[in-house]
Write a structure and sequence with these properties.
This protein has 355 residues and is of the alpha/beta class. Helices cover 41% and strands 15% of the residues. It contains 15 helices and 12 strands. The strands form 2 sheets. Strands 5-2-1-6-7-8-11-12 form an 8-stranded mixed β-sheet, with helices on both faces. Helix 7 (192-212) crosses helix 14 (318-335) and helix 9 packs parallel to helix 15. The radius of gyration is 20 Å and the shape is globular. Residues 1-8 have low confidence and may be disordered.
């Protein structure tokens, strides 16, 4: 690996290269950027013959060779050999505590750490562990699916956004310029906190999708599910209003009008929200994948973050509380090897209206 000791050459490590990290690493490699992916042995096997990258707009790239390490390889290497300029942490929020320890051999004094987690607050763990490094947040708005082994597909719109630090005000725009591409649009921002709240608003559909147990596009075509998501979003908007946070526009519809559009009858919704429905028909959310694989979800960093902050500003969030409860019931059933059934939009709507 080329290190940050080599003048003029920047090195990147993608730590926790699953779907998002694999796509990111594949894009960087396709741009001839010095990139190493750190992933599980099963992922390494999938990527051993290269990687096909596609998106919903028809863009595509073939990456014939990837530089890959597994977690077991890291203790065998010397620190200075594998220090990097940019370390992208793409594990989920639930894995951030362990990742903060595992990345230690890869972090040099000049390494910039980029946290790509959903929700709010997970970057604080990294900041506490590496107080002398620049730790920046990254907002990843799109979904990535794996149609077949060795093929990663970006199935929805959105621009990856990187936080700008005062200490690296020129480096990050330069980084953005080098990695921005049609396959993965990239920008930078000084308003990451409000951006993450806006992303969190969109992420509120994750839990509903996990409970519905159907593709996102199919879910959005059913008004009852949209009404549930609208209720969750309304509670978030009450919290951000209390915090005096103005949400930026991440989709064709401004944040404050998203619940209104979601509540439209199906025919009107199809016309008004055609871009919202312009996603791959097979895409499901990461929370659905977690539940289907018996893993702990990120619910505490998404809906849970809203509920916790809502208590501080005296806002009622019954709908989000109910969704959290339903997700945790499934997590417990998974632990006990129990079975679960999909919850219909009508059933879910009745559940959140009980409050």
């Amino acid at each position: 690996m080329t290190t940050n000791n080599s003048p003029g050459i920047q090195s990147h490590i993608i730590f926790g290269a699953g779907l998002i990290g694999g796509f990111l690493g594949g894009v960087l490699t396709s741009l001839h950027i010095n990139t190493t992916l750190v992933c599980r042995p099963s992922v390494k096997q999938k990527l051993s013959n290269g990687l096909k990258l596609t998106d919903y707009s028809g863009n595509k790239k073939e990456v014939k060779t990837l530089r890959i390490l597994t977690q077991d390889d890291i203790p065998k290497i010397s620190n200075e050999e594998h220090f990097c300029d940019f370390l992208w942490i793409t594990v989920k929020c639930t894995g951030i505590d362990q990742a903060s320890k595992d990345i230690s051999p890869l972090v040099g004094p000049n390494t910039t750490i980029l946290c790509c987690q959903n929700g709010l607050g997970s970057e604080k763990v990294i900041q506490q562990e590496y107080p002398n490094n620049i730790v920046l947040r990254v907002m990843v708005p799109f979904n990535v699916a794996e149609p077949v082994s060795g093929h990663l597909h970006r199935g929805s719109e959105g621009t990856l956004s990187i936080e700008i630090s005062e200490l690296q005000s020129t480096l990050i725009p330069s980084l953005v310029k080098s990695i921005n591409s049609p396959l993965m649009p990239v920008t930078c921002t000084t308003e990451m906190q409000s951006l993450l709240w806006a992303k969190l608003q969109l992420n509120l559909g994750n839990s509903v999708n996990a409970l519905a147990d159907i593709p996102v596009k199919t879910m959005l075509e059913q008004r009852e599910y949209r009404l549930v998501i609208a209720a969750l979003m309304n509670e978030l908007l009450l919290v951000t209003k209390a915090l005096h946070i103005k949400l930026p526009k991440l989709t064709a519809v401004p944040a404050k009008y998203l619940p209104v559009v979601l509540r439209l009858p199906n025919l009107l919704f199809t016309i008004v929200a055609n871009k919202m429905l312009a996603i791959d028909p097979t895409v499901r959310t990461s929370m659905w994948w977690d539940l289907s694989q018996g893993k702990t979800t990120e619910i505490e960093y998404l809906n849970g973050a809203i509920v916790n902050i809502a208590k501080e500003v005296k806002v009622n969030c019954y709908a989000n509380e109910k969704i959290i409860s339903l997700i945790k019931q499934i997590e417990q059933a998974n632990e006990q090897k129990g079975s679960r059934k999909a919850i219909s939009g009508k059933e879910l709507l009745l559940e959140i209206k009980k409050g």
